[in-house]
Amino acid sequence: MRCARLLSLFAGLLLLAAPASAEPIRLDDQRVAALSGLPNLRGAAVSAEALSGRAVVVAFWASWCPPCHPEFDNLKRAQETYGDDVAIVAVNIFEEFGSFKGTARRDAFLARKDPPFHVVAEGEGIAALFEGVERIPTVFVFAPDGSPVMHFVHAQGASKTHASYEEIDAALEQALGKGPGQG
Questions:
Q1: Which of the four pLDDT bands, split at 50, 70 and 90, describes residue 179?
Q2: Structural domain for 29, as ranges
Q3: What does the DSSP assignment read for 143-170?
Q4: What letter does residue 112 receive in the DSSP assignment?
Q5: What's the whole-model pTM score?
């Protein structure tokens, strides 16, 4: 009987410690305004108009993050594939991590990758608006109405380190209401 009570108490403590299941986030006016307020690093400035009527990809990254490199290539390919139907916003966070200080490494990364999409800085302040982004890369894909389509987080110790082009492509096809052979 004592063992059953201990197990019951332990299970109750686990439930208290477990995060409440939240509904998936939407790309709402508050998040659009937060993205629009970030300093622009590359490409056109982010505005509500730039994100309106399109599928939107929001990707959190840092130049020192190895999985962020191939993911940037996948985002570039998606932007080139979908053109004006998609707005991609790459949000630089955690840039000054460990021994990585200053902007030289980030600037070299951007010069090398030459992204054809919005790149903004100082995203730590809005990470809480996107489910408290704590790991990079983290990618969200939203339909033109702001509804969520995909959310990828590089989990610590996971063998899958970044969203593949195929995953991003499938999410954008879904976001834009296109099926195989329709787009």
A1: low
A2: 25-175
A3: -TTS-EEEEEE--TT-S--S--HHHHHH
A4: H
A5: 0.83
